[in-house]
Amino acid sequence: MLFSASPLSQHLLLSPATTLHRDFTFNHRRTLTPRPKMSLNNNNNNPNSTLLNSLTNLLWGKSLPPGLLITTVRTAWNSIWHLMMSQLAPSDPSGSYSRPASKFRLSGPSTTTATNLHLYVGLPCPWAHRTLIVRALKGLDDAVPVSISSPGPDGSWEFKRANGSGSGIVSPGLDKANECKTLKEVYRVRKNGYDGRSTVPMLWDNDSKDVVCNESYDIIEFFNSGLNALASNPDLDLSPPHLKEKIQQWYQLIYPNVNNGVYRCGFAQSQEAYDRAVNGLFGTLDKLEDHLANSRYLCGDTLTLVDVCLFTTLIRFDLVYNVLFKCTKKKLYEYPNLHAYTRDIYQIPKVAATCNFTEIMDGYYKILFPLNPGSIRPIMPSSSEHETLLRPHGRESISSAIPLLVK
Ligand SMILES: N[C@@H](CCC(=O)N[C@@H](CS)C(=O)NCC(=O)O)C(=O)O
């Protein structure tokens, strides 16, 4: 961690022998003034800000001159921010975020014969959320058990909490397949080892002790059609042959502009990169809003994989992306068709139980430190509350076809 209390800070905070407890000090004009009594228990419990207060007092008296304070912090913060962003969110030369490619791929639904599978996810992650939804709709809960990690202080995935919140909503727990403490450890125990990015979702083969796949789209295609012998809802097809081309066309629009588009807004490292991303995002949302006025789902009357992919971004939109990633032009709530479409999918049996809003908010606001250094989690917008999402969506008027055979 960048600003954790070091032995030096502990010394400054605790040692009575330092100048901190003198009654007088020079202020920044070099005149002698009574030192205000310093309290080690000030209202701000953050040891880092106490350290900075102590240092400021030590060097300049009661407060740093505002001009100097702002210039110094701005210069230091800009350099540190760019350093952090370049390592955490790689970008191209124009400052646009470029998402690293997934390492372990499946090139079709039947490219693995493994049947003793285990799924690793994290609940804030929209890519992992796709796999939880398709797993639930297909009835693969028993066939593919899941371990749910949560982000640790440095943002990497950890297993540290007892399973189950008792609410019926998915919640983080321990690693049930390998009993590891972190996801990094799981990737490392694979037979050939691995030292790259340890991302969720990740599908694991318990027999060969190896990673099967860590690309969400491959995993949902595989769950949709590659495990029907084990699924309790094998008749549900979220990628029927006659819609495959349409699904791909929508996905090619939605992935860069919406799914990854929100990240391209949030992780942009130049104004130009942000402008490009935000125009692509809202231009696409406008198009989707129009299309969904007369189409219940993206490809017509049938829910498909591309709806699942769109849903996991939309459900996080007002909650996180609108604020943290500066996707501010409009809230999802201001798009009546998109919001109703989101409610429609949320109300499909088993979907709401895959949405853990507390984990999503904590995962973004508390962990994406470079974007929210104070780690304050804003209040939940009412448009994202469970009760709001249960309001009638009225989309049966477009198509009353029973969309799913959820068993
Ligand atoms: N293209 C991948 C993206 C997966 C991804 O980026 N997951 C993020 C969480 S949202 C992650 O695990 N990041 C950890 C890291 O980069 O170390 C997919 O669709 O599965």
Automatic annotation (TrEMBL):
Cellular component GO terms, alphabetical: cytoplasm
A family per Pfam: GST_N_2
One function term, GO molecular function aspect: glutathione transferase activity
InterPro entries from the UniProt entry: Glutathione-S-Trfase_C-like, Glutathione-S-Trfase_C_sf, Glutathione_S-Trfase, Glutathione_S-Trfase_N, GST_Omega-like_C, GST_Omega/GSH, Thioredoxin-like_sf
Start and end residues of each GST C-terminal domain: 240-382
Listed PROSITE patterns: GST_CTER
PANTHER family with a match to the protein in the record: GLUTATHIONYL-HYDROQUINONE REDUCTASE, OS02G0814800 PROTEIN
Name of the protein: GST C-terminal domain-containing protein
